[in-house]
Design a protein that fits this description.
Helix content of chain A: 10-25%
Largest sheet of chain B: none
CATH topology of the largest domain in chain B: Rna Polymerase Sigma Factor, Chain: A
CATH class of the domain at 86-192 in chain A: Mainly Beta
CATH architecture of the domain at 86-192 in chain A: Beta Barrel
Strand content of chain B: under 5%
Distance between the termini of chain B: 56 Å
Shape of chain B: globular
Largest sheet of chain A: 9 strands, antiparallel
Number of helices of chain A: 4
Largest interface: A-B, 37 and 53 residues
Distance between the termini of chain A: 46 Å
Mean pLDDT of chain B: 79
Shape of chain A: extended
Oligomer: heterodimer
Number of helices of chain B: 7
Helix content of chain B: 55-70%
Number of strands of chain A: 17
CATH class of the largest domain in chain B: Mainly Alpha
CATH topology of the domain at 86-192 in chain A: Lipocalin
Order of helices and strands of chain A: HHEEEEEEEEHEEEEEEEEHE
Low-confidence stretches of chain A: 38-47, 62-67
Order of helices and strands of chain B: HHHHHHH
Radius of gyration of chain A: 27 Å
Strand content of chain A: 25-35%
Structural class of chain A: alpha+beta
Chain lengths: ~325, ~180
């Protein structure tokens, strides 16, 4: 890392060392002095109408942003497309279809979507963030991929380029839905045209047959405060996901049993138990490691949250953070 | 009561930091005209907001922060003008193409750095060019340290990927 640091620093130093601005201090100082004079002359007179305009604008934009989002028509009838059946892997992400060049990468950033599989009758599988291929919420009909969750219908176009079959799929992210921006395109290359109807998604299963081992630190009433990617991300004064947490409260009892309440104050019905520093979900066959930390005289419990992303996609679990009730 | 900056102090700050501000702006925008504009706006901001600067702390992170914010605003404005088809001709040209580098390796590395995204370039410029610690970079950019590390990793990984097609080997970077 050190060596690469020197190399990058050297090239930047060399590249930029002979460049200089044409701005002089005197011209800048004159501008600064004049700006101050103009500002003070108009400050009071402009203040009242500005406040009125700003208030009206704020009310309008807050109301508008809260109410408006783009929603596509998603109740489209299924129309078959034999050309799309099979597996497609992401090769690039472009602003426009015309930006794509198979010999030159347009985007070097790590891309969210890795693979898409189109199954007959409109079902789909997907692979995201280098996880496992698994069931997708999206469906397809000829020329369109429908996301019921996002309420978007993204058009896809298939093109033959240099003997390869490429798909250009509109990527309707929050930029499209909320900020009304033009969607970019994922470019995917066909890997095969196989029928994945009978594909079985592998399920991750943890070792769960542990004998009970007592841990007095775990016992007590815990209240949820945050949901984070890494334990080190947690800052008691800055909550990343403090609102609307699914897991609300946790009672860890002495005999290895526990009770979890969700945001609607309902008990989670899965068969759960705990031992040592693990919470076991016997239904999903997962064992979530718990870490206890004291930060500024307050005890916190960090629980690995092994959701479907862990079980079916094999993704790294995120963490619920709970505060011990006094 | 706010006390404005004196001409002497303003001149000293300008002389000490103008090259840095201009070069960072040039690196991020690739336009000399925009870099000049950003330099002017940055120093006007520094002069008018000098009373808010905590003089017990080093001035560099404060100036770097203003430079990056001004650059972001300028690029946003440029995108808007481009969208409205009102972009001045000179704003679109790449003034960094004329930069003279010492050898083929530097040309390759410079081109690879230039292809990075704006966010990656911000981290690169602060960590490598300004020689700031990652915790200070995170502070300047107003992001958590974890995000900052992740941005730097992404930037370096992308640099490595681009350089993998050439004969250039970037020291210290290993295969994934």
């Amino acid at each position: 890392m050190k060596q690469s640091k020197n190399e990058i620093n050297n090239v930047m130093e060399n590249a930029l060392q002979n460049t200089s601005t044409s701005i002089s201090f005197e011209s800048l100082w004159d501008l600064h002095s004049n700006k101050n004079k103009i500002k003070s002359k108009y400050r009071k007179a402009a203040l009242i109408p500005l406040i009125v305009i700003f208030s009206l604008f704020s009310c309008f934009t807050i109301g508008y942003a809260g109410l408006s989002r783009l929603v596509d028509k998603t109740d489209l009838p299924f129309v078959d497309d034999s050309e799309v059946i099979g597996k497609w892997e992401t090769v690039d992400f472009v602003n426009d279809i015309s930006d794509f060049d198979p010999k030159k990468q347009f985007t070097y950033d790590k891309l969210y979507l890795n693979d898409l599989v189109f199954i007959k009758d409109g079902e789909m599988l997907d692979r995201i963030e280098n996880s496992n291929l698994t069931y997708s919420n999206s469906t397809w009909t000829k020329g369109v991929i429908i996301s019921p969750q996002m309420e978007t219908a993204s058009k896809y176009t298939i093109k033959e380029i240099n003997g390869g079959k490429y798909m250009f799929m509109e990527w309707k992210s929050g930029d499209y839905v909320i900020r009304f921006m033009k969607p970019n395109y994922y470019v995917l290359k066909q890997v095969d045209a196989n029928d994945y109807s009978s594909y079985e998604v592998p399920k991750l299963v943890d070792k769960i047959d542990y004998l009970f081992s007592n841990n007095t630190e775990m016992i007590g009433h815990w209240e949820s405060v945050d949901f984070i990617e890494e334990i080190d991300d947690f800052r008691p004064i800055i909550l990343w996901n403090g609102d609307n947490l699914f897991l609300k409260e946790l009672d860890i009892l002495e005999n290895g049993s526990l009770v979890i309440k969700n945001m609607d104050n309902q008990n989670i019905t899965a068969e759960l138990s705990w031992t040592g520093d693990l919470i076991i979900n016997h239904d999903e066959k997962t064992a979530s490691k718990c870490t206890i930390k004291t930060i500024k005289d307050q005890t916190y419990l960090f629980i690995e949250w092994k959701s479907g992303d862990y079980v079916y996609r094999g993704m790294k679990p995120q963490y619920y953070v709970l505060k011990k009730a006094q | 009561m706010n006390i404005g900056i004196s001409k002497e102090t303003a001149e000293m700050i300008f002389n000490n930091h103008t090259a840095y501000v201009f070069r960072v702006a040039l690196f991020l925008t690739k336009s000399k005209v925009m870099a000049d504009d950003i330099t002017q706006e940055t120093f006007l901001h520094i002069f008018s907001k000098y009373h808010t600067y905590d003089t017990r702390r080093p001035i560099e992170p404060w100036i770097y922060k203003i430079t990056l914010n001004t650059t972001r605003n300028a690029l946003r404005k440029q995108r808007w003008l481009s969208f409205m088809d009102q972009l001045p001709e000179h704003a679109a040209c790449d003034d960094t193409e004329n930069i003279i580098l010492r050898n083929e390796e530097e040309v390759t590395l410079w081109a690879a750095v230039d292809l990075l995204t704006h966010k990656s370039k911000e981290v690169i410029v602060l960590h490598y060019y300004s020689d700031m610690k990652l915790s200070d970079v995170a502070d300047t950019l107003g992001i958590p340290l974890g995000t900052c590390k992740s941005r730097l990793n992404t930037a370096l990984r992308n640099l490595y990927k681009q350089l993998a097609h050439t004969n250039f080997i970037l020291g210290g970077l290993e295969h994934e």
